[in-house]
Amino acid sequence: MKRFFRNNGLSVVTLGLFVLLWGAQALTGWQAYNEEAQEHDRAVLGLGAYLESGHFWEATGENWESEFLQMAAFVLLTARLYQRGSAESKPLPEDEQAPEPPPSGPPPGPVRRGGWAAQLYSHSLSLTLLLLFAASFVLHLLGGAAEYNREAAAHGQPAVSTLAFLGSAEFWHQSFQNWQSEFLAVGAMAVLTIFLRERGSAESKPVEAPHHHTGR
Predict the structure, then answer these.
(1) Where are the domains of the chain?
(2) I want to staple 178 with a disulfide (CB 3.0 to 4.6 A). Which of 34, 66, 86, 199 is the partner?
(3) Is the dihedral of CA 120, 76, 126, 162 positive or negative?
(4) Tens of pLDDT along 69-78?
């Protein structure tokens, strides 16, 4: 177990925190939903029913969508753009040294097969993140439409279709307020790593590295 945690500690801790905090989101969202329902003399929901509600899935999809957009954009942009001095950038072309020898061991299967499999695999990270973004976008849309129609029914207003909700200012306001914050975070990370350090972190340059040093 010690060796497993040493080799996989980052994923174990981050995914464990994800499960813990998603559970906390569900419980607090359930409480907030029922408090609002009681204030308006509407029926409260059990936890199981709440986990199937638009209120829960709208909030979940809205946040997952912005995170996967951030990571997909980060992967694609850092493949093509530079930021002098940033640990989040590849070294500038004039600063690149001789390439390091390839790691020992056999390459992944798609690389060994070559052709279209290798070509697809060479972009598999960004493609997968974009697919996860698209799935989360749909989850946000479906959950948001359900929640919008629940609110509309409570106020005696007609329901709207999922397509109509897609074209609404409400849906895009929810999306844009999350998307802008993700790009702010990426930009802040790119700039702050020029001047600041965190000893031992893979996201930081060495503490002794000059500010103009680019890459990790």
Answers:
(1) 1-51, 53-92+108-216
(2) 66
(3) negative
(4) 998 988 888 8
